[in-house]
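Here is one chain, start to finish.
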Amino acid sequence: MRGNTMKDGVYKAACRGFIDAVPVTVTIKDGRIEDVDVHSSNETEFFLMAPRLKIPPLIKKYQTLNIDTVTGATFCSRAILNGVADCVRQAGGDPEVMRRAPGPDSYPERVTEKTCDICVLGTGGSGTTAALTAAERGAKVIVLEKGNFIGGISACTNCIMTIGSRIQKRAGVEVDMGAMYDATMLWNHYLGDSRLISRFLHETGPLVDWLEDEGIQMEYRGKEQLTDPFDAVVHWAEFANMEAHRKNFQRLLDHLVELGGELVMEARGQSLIVENGKITGLRARLSDDSTLIIHAKAVVVATGGYTGNKELCKKMFTYQCHPWVPAWMAEGDGLLMCLDAGAATRDLGARVIHLSNPEKTRFDKLRAEGKIVPSALATFPSGMTVNYRGQRFMNEFLVHNSLAVANAYVTQNDYGAALSIFSEGFLDKLIEGDAAAVNLDVTPGGFMGRDYTTPGYFKTVKEDLEAYIECGLCVKADTPEELAVKLRMDDTSVLPAEIERYNAFCRAGRDDDFFKDPLYLHEMTGGPYYALRIATYGLGSLGGIMVDSDMKVLDKNHTPIPGLYAAGSCAGGMWGRDSYGMIEGCTCSWAFTTGRMAGIESAAYVLGDGKEQ
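Its structure:
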């Protein structure tokens, strides 16, 4: 770069991200930046992923640091840019010159065009399934994925709800579809699309059979949630291993490519192309900021939710909580594209929130170091849970219903945060007698694939808690009064009174406030006292785009928009503008099953007689 001489060599730097430093290595050759490597650290991988994907190629291509940060990953973006600036300085260059250099937006637009029968947006459960299903029926399919990894949120799931699958039949499990339909309509208050829900339930069994035929390994393990009214889930093999699960998506997408399909990574959909009222393709932005135009007879939108879109979240959600996924993964791209094309909306405001875990930003580093034993106390029916005002607000057995406990947390208006209270005496019970000492024989579903009822599990709990205390994830005090002070509660008299009231219930064997089973009432006595910072997180929104039972997107007159389909989390009709269902595995099943339905129907449209929808 003119006016910015740099000495050839390999330079290293590490600048602060959100929770840890982000190491970078920069190679200078012939006075130019030849390579930028961003290395793994204790920084949250999900938040580092998009900046690592986007920023280094732009730095190399344009020889500039004048690059926008990634929405929802600002700290990690700045860490990379600052690290490269440090390396430039080490090489004798001036990073300020590079910060003022022309950015990608300063160059003429570059356009690439492709043609196919069907373009699918997203490689999560709905998008991958839609694409392969359509390809198997003879359609030429192009799939766009805006990230640099496949699977989306579906790769984080552990089980899928199904009715009448071969796996269930081999296990001798029967599920009453009529009862499931009634339960579904009850929890959506009969605001759901009854025809769509009926078809969805009928398709769940064939969907799982199809996945099994595609080589996806699943098994019947029984239900996870004790409060689930149905035993209707099958689990992915190695469900606790996200990378192993992501290989399932790779298998499906490899089959798509074998059938002549194409996968384009790092391609973000921007707008639909509409001609004479029909969808004829879309425009997308690639990682190098060039434009990709897809000419297609149909488009399947499977982009997931909008929890990364702060404006939509503020407008649609009554109660707020922090997203579990980074904002860039779920900004409502597909929803906004469909709205611009005239689509109607349905179920805006529904979302996936569940589980009780230690506060994520602090816990991620501890989990990476293997210190997870104290995290069990975030999902403890025999414990005591309070809000940040020191008030107990729930029956702690609610942790066996991952949705219900999440809803209970968010209604406390602390962005889904709460406190798990326990004493040294309570910990001593666990160390000496294991979980059985407080009458626990089942680990709540979703607890990181671990079983805390295993003998000896809590042997290191006090030792590991020191790391939690050091990073602020847990607060320790000699008395309840001191604990309230350290937690900076507005009224420090509330927490001590609540602990004493709870202990009185334990002694009486009766919970007069929230009616917890006496089996799980155990006194919090014998200090010191502890408060573990716990929270629930939003995994994504649900609904938004109105569809019919064929997954065709409808306009404001409830008429199908020719050539436009939606599936998975961005498609409405199931939820009734409520939180998602009390039936385990239903959102994962909704993603995969509606994706297959969209694949079937879009293929029939483009390969059929061409009649209007």
